[in-house]
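RECORD TYPE: inverse folding
INPUT: structure tokens
STRUCTURE:
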């Protein structure tokens, strides 16, 4: 009986580990997006090796938004003290959304995105987000989408 209980308990334990879905280095900061169960987490390692983690209100997997570049697409807004503004996308498409948006390979597309600011020393997340908008990792978007994520 004890063996059966142990097997039952073990079968209910989740062995899911954090999986990195996207990463890059910017201005000597290492950034990585990980799956933490159903949600995403951003980890930033600064040049002095300090680690900061941000829980994201995005369903996993999550990605940084790219265009044709090898680094994630970003824009600067110097008057606002923003050296670089990136977009993190998540909330993968459902089968119905894939049909609505006419996306053949929806593996790196989502319907929610947050801005990630870099002020020259530190990263921070935008308070605003885009919901219900198609965002795909390698498709990029117009600068106006970035502009609307400035708080």
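DESIGNED SEQUENCE:
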């Amino acid at each position: 009986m004890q063996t059966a209980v142990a097997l039952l308990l073990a079968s209910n334990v989740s062995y899911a580990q954090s999986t990195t879905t996207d990463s890059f280095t910017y201005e000597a900061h290492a950034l990585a997006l990980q799956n933490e169960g159903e949600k995403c987490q951003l980890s930033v390692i600064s040049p002095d090796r300090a680690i900061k983690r941000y829980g994201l209100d995005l369903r996993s997997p999550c990605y940084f938004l790219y265009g044709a570049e090898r680094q994630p697409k970003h824009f600067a807004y110097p008057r606002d003290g923003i050296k670089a503004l990136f977009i993190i996308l998540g909330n993968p498409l459902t089968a119905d959304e894939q049909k609505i948006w006419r996306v053949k390979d929806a593996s790196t597309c989502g319907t929610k995105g947050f801005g990630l600011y870099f002020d020259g020393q530190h990263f921070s997340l935008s308070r605003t987000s885009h919901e219900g908008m198609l965002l795909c990792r390698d498709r990029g978007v117009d600068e106006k989408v970035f502009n609307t994520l400035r708080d």
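NOTES: The helical segments are 2-12, 95-100, 143-147.
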